Amino acid sequence: MNSILRAFGYLKPYWWLQIPALICALGVTVANLAFPWITKKLIDEVFLPSASPQQSLQSLRFCLTAFSLALLTSGVLTVLRQLLFTYVGERATADIRSDVFRHLQNLSLSYFGQEKTGRLMSTFTNDVGAMQGLYTSTLVDLITNSLQVVVTLVVLFRIEPGLAAISWPIVPLFAVSIVVFGRPLRHAGRHVQERAAAISEGLQEAISGMREVKSFTQEALQIRRFVSLFLSMIPVRLKQATLGAVSGETSSIAAWGGVMLVMWWGGQKVIAGQMKPGVLVAFTSYLGGLFGPTAWFVSLNSLLQSAMAGADRVFQLLDTVPQVQDAPNARELPPIAGDVHLHHVSFDYGDGKDALTDVTVRARPGEMVALVGPSGAGKTTLAHLICRFYDPREGRVTVDGIDVREVTQHSLRRQIGVVFQETFLFGTSIRENIRFGRPDATDAEVEAAAKAANAHGFICNLPEGYETQVGERGIKLSGGQRQRIAIARAILRDPRILILDEATSSLDSESEAAIQDALERLMVGRTSFVVAHRLSTVLRADRIVVLEGGRVAEIGTHAELLARNGAYRRLYDAQFGGAAVGRLVDGQVDGPTEQIVGR
Ligand SMILES: Nc1ncnc2c1ncn2[C@@H]1O[C@H](COP(=O)(O)OP(=O)(O)OP(=O)(O)O)[C@@H](O)[C@H]1O
Ligand SMILES: [Mg+2]
Question: Does residue 462 belong to any structural domain of this protein?
């Protein structure tokens, strides 16, 4: 229930719009109350021959005018009410989505490692969607429906106290169905939402993994899996629909049972001449008018239940505390020289298995440190810690002597440029993708960055140049081209610290040379950490850090490490074999596509 109250909090900024909406809704209610009264008048004063034809005609004219007025008022006000409700509902929903999205931006990377993308998407669509029902009209409907029930009851007692006294108990009969069906309905609602989330989660994965599906020819398996996933929605939906329908019909039967009772009693009175037929018709009509609000109260139950399930999930996400947060007294990191130091850092991803153990590495301003080691050694992890995507369990990371936990994440990352192992490009133009490094960069600056990244040439050869749209994941570009765009993006940022997680995939020698050339330019005057898979990169490093199983195995220059005959030598030999060593010692390296470590 707490989450429902909290959900209603999103209506607060628009409370003033609820007032005209309420006025419209009340107008509609009043207009609707007029219809049975007009009907009664029609029957008793027009159709029954109790007055002169002249008078009857006048009454007929009056009734039809009143009927038209009520109809028109009800129509116009209903449209207005609908507009206001839709506007308020959409605004509140947009506010929730914005809050969730804002919160997602602040959550740590670790969160996105745990939660599936599709599950998060489903929060935006299904869960917020379930809450939307609350905002369209719930509050105002609650007021108008309650009012309608009360006014109708008063009218009923005024018309025929005796009949009213025997018929009013049908109203609480509805409550019985609320009690009986409430809990199962809530469960059913929750199951439906869970299924929907599972479907969107699975679809998201299935679509992103289309290349893998096709290359392993698993289309048929995927189809089977998804068809059964889609079908699995049926029983939960059926259960929900059945419960909803049975609950609705139970109320309906109770209601009509009440009406029949009234007809039986009232009918006898009319036959005995103790009651005018118009009164009985109006009475049953008013009584019928109670069903709408009462049915609404019944459906309110399932609406609240499914909204609550959605709201629970939305607020659970909103209440997730980011693992990495700015300290309350975090300050801005001033412009730095670029002295990066990891002191005895140990780190695990929360699975109890150390990804890094007691790692100490330092890069002085302007230095280039190469990180090498077998797959899973912790190279990318180390790079992530410098960006403070995660906090170390032990030890600390300092930049210019300042612990990165003491400064705001923004001020730290503003001075870091990263090219990740797997380049992600947004589904927009190449220009916009490069500009992501610095949104206020001019076109000339974007192009200068592309030139420095050796990307300008191939971009100009594309039919639409810089305006070429790249696919969701830049699928229309080659790996090397994507990487050069990512480098341009990092160059544009003009960072003091540069982190390059080299792609493990081999590139053709031309791309390779172009990238090396771009990197060389990019690294000048910056402190850089390069996760190196290529010999050409390693050779240029001021220092090579060899990681093995999350520990620093060796540190030194290429020549020093080779001479030491240790971990680096083993890595090197495994990749290139003894013959290459001779060439290396002579300082002659073969093609630049050689990889020092790779998969
Ligand atoms: N998000 C994560 N959650 C849990 N464990 C992780 C996560 N990322 C990496 N690991 C684990 O941490 C260890 C180090 O991984 P890391 O990605 O740093 O290796 P790497 O040296 O960059 O390897 P590669 O050369 O293959 O890129 C591995 O054992 C890996 O399984
Ligand atoms: Mg890696």
Answer: yes
**Do residue 308 and residue 387 come from a single domain?**
no
User: Which pair of tokens denotes residue 376?
Assistant: 């899973």
Q: What is the mean pLDDT of residues 406-418?
A: 92
What's the domain count of the chain? 3
In angstroms, rounded to a whole number, what is the distance separating the alpha carbons of residues 496 and 297? 63
Smallest CA separation from ligand 1 atom 3, residue? 349
User: Is residue 381 lining ligand 1, measured as CB closer than 6 Å?
Assistant: yes
In a domain, 324, yes or no: no
Return the CATH number at 526.
Answer: 3.40.50.300
Atom of ligand 1 nearest to the CA of 109: 1
Residue 443 exposed, middle or buried by CB count within 10 Å (0-12, 13-18, 19+) = exposed
| pLDDT tens profile 44-77 | 888 877 778 888 888 899 999 999 999 999 999 9
409 part of a folded domain: yes
Q: Kindly report the CA angle at 595 between 593 and 598, in degrees rounded to 5? A: 130
Is the pLDDT at 590 greater than 50, yes or no?
Answer: no
* Contact assessment for residue 366 and residue 340, using Cβ atoms and an 8 Å cutoff: no
Q: What is the CATH number of the domain that holds 74?
A: 1.20.1560.10
- Max Cα–Cα distance, the chain, nearest Å: 125
Percent share of the chain, pLDDT over 90: 32
Q: How far is the CA of 421 from the centre of ligand 2 (A)?
A: 6
Retrieve residue 372's tokens. Answer: 């090498």
Quick: pLDDT tens for 171-184.
Answer: 677 667 767 887 78
Domain of residue 552, residue span: 334-415+496-599
Atom of ligand 1 nearest to the CA of 378: 18
